[in-house]
Amino acid sequence: VSRSGGTGALAQWVLLELQGEVEPRQSGDLAGSLLGDLHYTCEGVPVLIVGHHILYGKVVQLEKPFAVLVKQGGASQPSPTAPQGHYTVTALIKTKLLFKTRPKPIITHVPKKV
Amino acid sequence: AAMRSRAEVDATLQTAKLNPAELLPAVHCLSFGPQAGGGECCLLQLEPGLCAELEAGRSLVIRGEKDEHAVLCSKDKTYDMKIADTSNMLLFVPGCKTPEELKADQGSCSIIHSQIAGFSKNYWELRRCRPKLKKLRKLLMEDPYEGPDSRKDQASTFSKYTTEDLLNLIQASEEEILHQLQVIDACKIEGYWRILDFDYEMKLLNHVTQLIDSESWPLSKVPLCACLEELGSLEPREMIEHILLSYGRKYVDDGEVFFEMHEDKICRAVAQMLLQNAVKFNLSEFEEVWQQSVPEGMTTRLDQLQGLALVDKSSRPETIFLLKVEDLPEDNQERFNSLFGIREKWTEVDITPYIQDLCAEKQTVGALLTKYARSSMLNGVKVYNSRRPIS
């Protein structure tokens, strides 16, 4: 597991933690499809609008940061039973946005065109 | 999919009945990146210190063959890896800013298009563990070095291992491996790490102790140069120096190199030499022969044999037999099973040398005994036996 090459600092990413599954709206690939809009209130509360739901969350500084590993060679996927192989650390994650509250549905009386 | 516009975002806010005045001006429009569903990214939860190591540019290595549980190694520590499942979905987003970052950045644009790089329902957890070093000895014992005259070496078809080879095969950090090589008195011969065959090792030791005796050198001040000169015709110089390093402490006095010989280690080696030839010995006979066999000026004591031999005080007469801790299983439960198979009840004094190496970073022998054994009283003495019936 080596650091990604280069002398620059490791990228810092953010983790989004959501309840439930992530499914593509249309049949077909997830890639490219929209998840939603992420806002923050002036007090710093994250607000995520996903489809017809509003999710309120909180910013959490992780006690134990994560490293994001990307497997080199791409041959087989890293699985719990066979994690061996060469990995590159692509980024570190020190912050997560935790959305645990039950999503509030958006009740619309307005036609869906947007 | 086309990128969302600010107008679309604002329309959504309106539909959602959220007041833009209560929100920061910037919005992240999140979409799934091209690789997102590929599963090539995974998350590793970092123990304290590892994050700093990565940021400092150091590497971490995942080691383990197909039949081993994978471990993660930093430069000097080893960790077990375990999958932790969450019931939640974890999405990792590059370039996503926190509220503080947005507020600090005055000129932030009002839309940030962020691509989710990947997602997962689980991540790898780490737990510091003992380095798995038993394999190191096993590998080096495949082909112990018997000396330059041994015909075996020239025709050898056994694998020999360089430092690089060992790093790839042993589930431990580099520092832990190098330290263990020192502990087991391995030496590098022609670029390969070797362990000496015990008989050859004793032959070398004998040369040295006989020389010390004939020259009447004090055991605490054995001169390197003179040893190399006197013994150089019998054995390779590197081997003479190696045996001095293994059984003595090197120091410099007035520009010259000397060795302070380890009395305990030498006595222990002599004991091993005597004990390995039979299943067990009459204790008092053994103690007599042992004292006579060690170099002049050295005193033998039974406590020098901890982790090497075990005294059976229940037999009449009392006996002693070879039991080397390094021959016992590495796994905690297996080690205890093995020990209780050898003897049903152990005192803490007797068992400690055989479980000491199992202690994790802040663990005590007492804690191990509480976990893996059951205690009882026998003739007024506290003894430990197995928690489960031994088949």
From TrEMBL, chain A:
InterPro entries: Ctf8. Pfam families: Ctf8 (PF09696). One of its GO terms (molecular function) is DNA binding. GO terms for biological process: DNA replication; mitotic sister chromatid cohesion. Coiled coil: none annotated. It comes from the Eukaryota. Keywords: Cell cycle, DNA replication, DNA-binding, Nucleus. Belongs to the CTF8 family. This is CTF8 protein. The lineage of its organism: Eukaryota, Metazoa, Chordata, Craniata, Vertebrata.
TrEMBL record, chain B:
Pfam families: Dcc1. Keywords: DNA replication. GO terms for biological process: DNA replication; maintenance of mitotic sister chromatid cohesion. GO terms for cellular component: chromatin; chromosome, centromeric region; Ctf18 RFC-like complex. Belongs to the DCC1 family. This is Sister chromatid cohesion protein DCC1.
